[in-house]
Design goal:
heterodimer; A: 292 residues; alpha/beta; 2 domains; 6-stranded mixed sheet; 4-stranded antiparallel sheet; B: 256 residues; mainly alpha; 0% strand
């Protein structure tokens, strides 16, 4: 059972702290969603995990072994990111061959299927690809290389709706055929909400939420009704945000409800991950920080 | 360790450049002068032997190995994308440069001994044949020592390239440009100062001259001692390897 651990990782550029004492554990065969606003530190964290940059402090381990300067552990991960690390002058087919040589394997069957579905010309040079096809090519590599941890940083950048849909289908099929750990870092929360099993929210370099999606959604409560009744009912609860529609108020609660009696005129339901994300990352004026 | 795979990748990528270098050399020392002599109407005075005598194959290969050694960031990007550690990259790059030097040096010496020497009445074609060739009278020993010394000079040239290239990759593009502008100017000023000091204060600077004599194996009479330079190159090479290793360990993806 492979486990990827991030232990007390911090990163600063000069006096600016980008990542502050992050602790995480990624278990085998789960699909994680790493969410955060722009500049939250997601890409920096993923670059540290894959040893592309050094942390200011802390360490990353796979199966209790530090990944830093460690081929056997680094070779278990593939980070697909917006940054292009392939030679611009190289043909796509050549990059596949070279990547296969170094990783020691490649799923050609799946690659051929994806190449046909996405209609990508493998004779093209990498530097000539459009933003969308650049993402598609890197996604093909990510899904076809023999790694245990597939890390995707903004995987659908530049992809149109059809291609995004196709990618999510391929991802789930690939996961079903060959279960492994996926870490999806994205802004498109609604699109991945039904795919991910666990959600991690990074805000200003700190982890503010790290739980299974099912548990998270079970703790979201939208309390809608007359303003005074809603306020009365949610008194003392963790209200992370609210909406007003005339005299009607919706208070958004994150956390367990106690056994207080629900007034007949107040309605209770769950709200979605995106709304919770917005509230927790202080997008909404009335929100407050939730410590996991 | 993925050293074998990385060696294969780097070697496959860098080997074809040797062919390009030698073809460019042929174009520069034979074809271009030939065309110029045709255009200028001086074809009767054009001599291929003179052209070959004047063009240093060893120097051109040295320049090639120096330049490719400075270019490591592109390979680093590809390798770190593919989960290769810095130490594996370092070991593989050293091995590949060693292989390229072996190929280039062998070609250079075969070309020198078997082709250039016979057609130029045994004119010297590299540093060894110019200064050290008469230290031993046995041509086989001289050939072996020439191979070792030439290879070591290329190794040091390659390591110098690796040190400079890897040092620069620690900085942003803007800082790199500043260094590339400021460093040669500073170096030039320092060299001018040293030369001036050597001329003005010949006596005080004599240690520099004495040190140079020691390194080169200078002897007041007869041929220079090749072992002095070989040992100096080995020591200098070892120091450069240690510096290069440190610089490789500090490589990381840049933000620009």
């Amino acid at each position: 059972m492979s486990m990827l651990e991030v232990n007390h990782v911090s990163k600063s550029y000069g006096s600016k702290s980008v990542i502050a004492d992050v602790n995480l554990a990624f278990e085998e065969n789960k699909i994680y969603g790493l969410l955060g606003r722009n500049g939250a530190g997601k890409s920096t964290l993923l670059n540290i995990i894959t040893d592309r940059i050094f942390p200011s402090s802390g360490e990353v381990k796979i199966d209790s072994e530090n990944v830093a300067d460690n081929d056997s552990k680094l070779g278990l991960m593939y980070l697909m990111s917006e940054v292009d690390l392939y030679p611009n002058g190289a043909k796509l087919s050549q990059i596949v061959k070279d990547s296969e040589l170094i990783y020691g394997g490649f799923n050609h069957k799946l690659a051929d299927k994806m190449i046909a579905e996405f209609k990508i010309d493998m004779g093209q040079k990498f530097g000539k690809l459009s933003t969308g096809y650049n993402s598609i090519f890197k996604l093909i590599l990510a899904l076809c290389l023999p790694v245990k941890f597939v890390i995707l940083d903004e995987p659908v950048l530049g992809l149109d709706a059809n291609h995004r849909e196709l990618f999510y289908t391929e991802l789930l099929d690939s996961y079903a055929d060959n279960p492994r750990t996926f870490i999806l870092s994205t802004h498109l929360i609604e699109e991945v909400a039904n795919i991910i099993s666990d959600v991690i929210i990074l805000d200003q370099g700190r982890i503010i939420l790290n739980q299974p999606v099912e548990d998270v959604l079970a703790k979201t409560h939208s309390v809608v009704g007359q303003k005074n009744e809603v306020e009365e009912y949610t008194k003392g609860l963790n209200v992370v945000g609210h909406d007003d529609m005339g005299n009607i108020r919706a208070n958004y609660v994150y956390g367990d409800l106690d056994d207080r009696r629900l007034p007949d005129t107040v309605q209770l339901s769950n709200f979605d991950l995106q709304k919770l994300f917005v509230f927790l990352t202080n997008q909404y004026e009335g929100s407050k920080r939730h410590e996991n | 360790m993925k050293t074998k795979q990385v060696i294969k990748y780097l070697f496959k990528k860098q080997l074809p450049l040797i062919g390009v270098v030698y073809l460019t050399l042929i174009a520069l020392i034979i074809i271009l002068p030939f065309l110029l002599s045709v255009i200028s109407g001086t074809l009767s005075s054009f001599s291929i032997v003179d052209q070959l005598r004047g063009g240093s194959v060893s120097a051109v290969f040295g320049f090639y190995i120096f330049v490719i050694s400075t270019l490591s960031y592109e390979n680093f990007k590809f390798l770190i994308q593919n989960g290769v550690s810095r130490s594996t990259f370092f070991e593989a790059q050293l091995s590949v440069n060693g292989l390229l030097i072996l190929i280039g040096n062998t070609f250079n010496l075969l070309y020198g001994y078997l082709f250039l020497s016979p057609i130029t009445d045994n004119a010297p074609f590299n540093l060894f044949t110019r200064v050290y060739d008469t230290y031993f009278s046995n041509p086989f020993v001289n050939g072996v020592l020439n191979f070792v010394m030439s290879a070591l000079m290329l190794v040091v040239g390659s390591l110098l390239g690796m040190v400079i290239g890897n040092f620069l990759t620690l900085f942003s593009k803007v800082a790199q440009r500043l260094i590339l502008i400021i460093a040669p100017i500073t170096g030039g000023v320092v060299l001018l100062f040293i030369f001036k000091a050597m001329i003005d204060y010949r006596f005080r600077m004599s240690w520099v001259v004495n040190f140079a004599k020691l390194v080169l194996g200078y002897q007041s009479s007869g041929a220079y001692n090749p072992f002095a330079l070989i040992i100096s190159l080995i020591i200098f090479g070892a120091i450069l390897i240690a510096i290069t290793r440190l610089l490789f360990a500090r490589k990381q993806l840049k933000r620009d």
